Amino acid sequence: QFAYDFFYQPVPEQGQGSGFIIDKQGHILTNNHVVEGAQSVEVTTADKKRYKATVLGTDKSHDIALLQITNAPDLQPATLADSTHLLVGQRVYAIGNPFGFQGTMTRGIISALRSVELPSGMKIDNAIQTDAAVNPGNSGGPLLNSRGEVIGITTMIAGNPNGGAEQSAGIGFAIPISTAKAVLDDFARYGRVRRPSMDVVTLEISPDLAQQIGLPADFGVLIERVLPGGAAERAGLRGGSQRAYLGFTPIILGGDFIVGIDGQTITNKQDLSNALNAHHAGDTVTVTVFRGQKQFNVKVTLSDATQQPTPGEET
Question: Of 18, 83, 111, 139, which one is the catalytic site residue?
């Protein structure tokens, strides 16, 4: 799923976005693309006061940035909800500064929960799709539930294929706040984001392909290659050795076939990504695999993908 990002339009001298305060110390969450490349950042609060802001950390892969303002009295932090159990049809509210109209609220519902791709090529897992009206200036603002709790960070909209680039199709996306919480935890503990990885290159398996190559389960993720010295290799997992073609695409067969992590069924790459993103680098997970027709569990200590080069699509 690819979404055209309305909020990434270049602004030569001055850009504008939204954000929200998360604690009394003046920490603010917004989008990375709101502050990326900025020489200075200024925050205007709801009472119209202006403060110079410091960018404490950014995570381009999740499009999240953490800012801080100081000497700001009587701050009212937003309440962060749990976004892991959202429901399609749930009512939501978006607050931001669309087209510079400060403090604008719009409402809608959760239309879907899906993986979407940023223009940078990065993916957001379990992005919240909504029909609440969002426009340039909403970027980085909060998406709220009916209790006024933050469930997501508004980040982009899908463009109308029959209209101009600046015409909304009524499809907006927000980063789940639970994803942001994990990023915040990494900022606090390490001063940067650590992305958990098994250090494997994988192939998603469908029932037809499973039958063709004789796999013992209809769905899962086949390990084509394990990275030398990586988490999977250290745990004893194996990549493939048999070269083949899927249409015109070269693939490697014969590797371990992942069907579960920590008791959770893994049917595709999205499931695998979700399972890993629920952990931190350094955590140990139990991976259920088939090697041939034999099923067994392997303990894998996840590595930090941000500390090594990424040769190809890796998880």
Answer: 139
Confidence check: pLDDT of 190 > 70? yes
| C-alpha to C-alpha distance for 175 and 169, rounded to whole angstroms | 19
Catalytic residue among 33, 197, 271, 303: 33
Task: Return the residue matching tokens 């799923």.
Answer: 1
Task: Return d(Cα 112, Cα 158) in angstroms, integer.
Answer: 13
Tokens of 160: 């109308």
Query: 22 pLDDT exceeds 60?
Result: yes
Q: What is the mean pLDDT of residues 139-145?
A: 95
Residue 33, token pair as written in the block: 């693309």
Whether residue 241 lies in the annotated active site: no
For the question of residue 63 being annotated catalytic, the response is yes
Among residues 59, 63, 271, 304, the one annotated as catalytic is 63
**Quick check: 91 and 77 in contact, CB under 8 A?**
no
Rounded to 5 degrees, what are φ and ψ at 192? -165, 175
pLDDT at 135: 87
In 3D space, the residue among 81, 60, 80, 58 whose CA is nearest the CA of residue 68 turns out to be 58
- Report d(CA 143, CA 165) in Å as an integer: 23
In the chain, count of helices (H) and strands (E)? 5, 21
How many Cβ atoms from other residues are within 10 Å of residue 131's Cβ? 17
Q: Give dist(CA 293, CA 274) in Å, integer.
A: 26
Where residue 160 falls among pLDDT bands split at 50, 70, 90?
low
Q: Using CA atoms, how far apart are residues 167 and 161, in angstroms rounded to an integer?
A: 9
pLDDT, residue 166, reads 52
Torsion sign across C-alpha atoms 159, 161, 164, 170: negative
